[in-house]
UniProtKB/TrEMBL annotation:
Gene source species: Pisum sativum
Cofactor field: pyridoxal 5'-phosphate
CDD domains named in the record: CGS_like (cd00614)
Entry protein name: plant cystathionine gamma-synthase
GO biological process: methionine biosynthetic process; transsulfuration
E.C. number(s) listed in UniProt: 2.5.1.160
UniProt keyword annotation of Transmembrane helix present: no
Length: 490
């Protein structure tokens, strides 16, 4: 049996046992460790009486759980449940008499026979393992036969990552979430899992460049073609649905970098009528600002590298949706890899605890900056869905709870004047990415599209004087003063 390394440490009081879940609880413990045998041989140590009464003896439950490597019906035990090994202080042979030499002790001592890992820590333990073991072959067979849950191998699951996935599902209102090593990995695996070879997808013009490249250059290798529409062009979507057997509509909303918004409710209705799935890349919004699934989308992808983790210290991506769809994506991931490391999972969990606070602050700062910039004579145009001048302002107000922390704007000038502005800023880093606590600024024409000639860039509406300002959690007044002094200089 694979040992799930999350370890629950319980004080089993009589009062706990007398709760209405008593029988279920006792049963789970009994089955966890072939308890009947242990009970028969050492009943006094466990202190159980026939009517399931338990003394206040400290009992350690090592949760073991099966992670299905198929679309299995077996699901992980919810926190507090366990079907794993049960050990009681003193019941374990700590002498390691079967480990005679240092070479064996260094490898196995204190681990092989049960670890005293403290589990009443507030934080989630980082389970740094690539492999989980089975105590005996019968446990392995039970897992294979889907009679019990366990983990087996790092590519198929990890307890720390499971916690993260459940947290994300709770936020997105999803049945299931899969975390992967990056946002790009997540959307690539999603396309491969859900679009059949030779299939057709619809997507939108403004989007993260690598996603565009994947759709344009890599999906055709599987014979998958795409119709690309303007984010607001519903007629074009209807025509694409009419003229093709569309498997999937994929779009960011808001989009990168111009923050165009797509009507999730409307496109979901139209796509579902034709049997097409809808997958929303909600990276710019996060589940704090937009609940794509409750608006009708089937799936929502997030580059957790951005706001979700929020500290510029980890790459991660995730996809949330129904158990049925996510298990399809998960099955592909089991083969393709792109596994999130447990350390990264921990960093994302930690970051997520302040997601709502950061996003609310960033929403508020960005909106104030957008309004300020719009009135400035050296700024030609501002792209921010919270401004009435934005083409999808009404829609954004309807489907979002906040407008996000990224403000794009065009400097009144050429590339050199725009560079001068960016270089004059003192607070934001000149860097790619966004969503962290530090403000970040760049010119998309240089940061993301420099390898293309200007005319090529302009095909994607990437102009030399556009600035993408991604606010961090610094105080608004400092960012405002910084932007104003930089505009003053140019
Ligand atoms: C909207 C959007 N989706 C996906 C990605 C890719 O995410 P990652 O960098 O985590 O692979 C990005 C990256 O910037 C993005 O902006």
């Amino acid at each position: 049996m694979e040992q799930r390394s999350a370890i629950f440490d319980y004080q089993l009081h009589q009062t706990l046992i007398q709760t209405k879940n008593r029988d279920k609880y006792i049963k789970s413990i009994m089955s966890a460790f072939d308890f009947s045998a242990a009970f028969a041989t050492t009943p006094s140590k466990f202190g159980f009486k026939s009517q399931h009464r338990v003394s206040t003896r400290r009992v350690r439950i090592v949760a073991s759980s099966l992670w299905p490597n198929t679309n299995s019906v077996v699901s992980p035990p919810s926190p507090g449940e366990s079907n794993g090994a049960l050990e009681v202080n003193g019941a374990v042979d700590k002498s390691y008499s079967f480990l005679k030499c240092d070479g064996s002790k260094t490898v196995h001592a204190a681990e092989r026979l049960g670890r005293g890992i403290v589990t009443d820590a507030i934080t989630t333990p980082v389970v740094n393992t690539s492999v989980y073991f089975f105590k005996k072959t019968a446990d392995l067979i039970d897992w294979k036969e889907k009679r019990q849950f366990s983990y087996e191998y790092g590519r198929y699951g990890n307890p720390t990552t499971t916690v993260l996935e459940e947290k994300m599902s709770a936020l997105e209102g999803a049945e299931s979430t899969l975390f992967l090593a990056s946002g790009m990995c997540t959307s690539s695996v999603m396309f491969l899992a859900l679009v059949p070879a030779g299939g057709h997808i619809v997507t939108t013009t403004d989007c993260y460049r690598r996603t565009r490249i994947f759709i344009a250059n890599m999906l055709p290798k599987m014979g998958i073609t795409a119709t690309i529409i303007d984010p607001a062009d519903i007629d074009a979507l209807e025509a694409a649905l009419e003229n093709n057997k569309v498997s999937l509509f994929f779009t960011e909303t808001p989009t990168n970098p111009f923050q165009r918004c797509v009507d999730i409710k409307l496109v979901s209705e139209l796509c579902h009528r034709k049997g097409a799935l809808v997958c929303i890349d909600g990276t710019f919004a996060t589940p704090i600002n937009q609940k794509a699934l409750s608006l009708g989308a089937d799936l929502v992808v997030n580059s957790a590298t951005k706001y979700i983790a929020g500290h510029h210290d980890v790459l991660a991506g995730c996809i949330s949706g129904s158990e049925k769809l996510i298990s399809k994506v998960r099955s592909f991931h089991f083969i393709l890899g792109g596994t999130l490391s447990p350390n990264s999972a921990y960093l994302v969990i930690r970051g997520m605890k302040t997601l709502h606070l950061r996003v609310q602050h960033q929403n508020s700062t960005a909106l104030k900056l957008a309004k300020l910039l719009e009135t400035h004579p050296k700024v030609q145009r501002v792209y921010y869905p919270g401004l009435p001048s934005h083409p999808e302002y009404a829609l954004a107000k309807r489907q979002m709870f906040g407008f996000g922390g990224v403000v794009c704007f065009d400097i009144d000038g050429d590339i050199m004047r725009t560079i001068k502005f960016v270089d004059a800023l003192k607070i934001p880093y000149i860097a790619p990415s966004f969503g962290g606590v530090e403000s970040v600024v760049n010119q998309p024409a240089i940061m993301s599209y420099w390898d293309l000639q200007r005319l090529e860039r302009e095909k994607y509406k990437i102009y030399d004087n556009t600035v993408r300002f991604c606010v961090g959690v610094e105080t608004y007044e400092d960012l405002k003063d910084d932007i104003l002094q930089a505009l003053e200089i140019i």
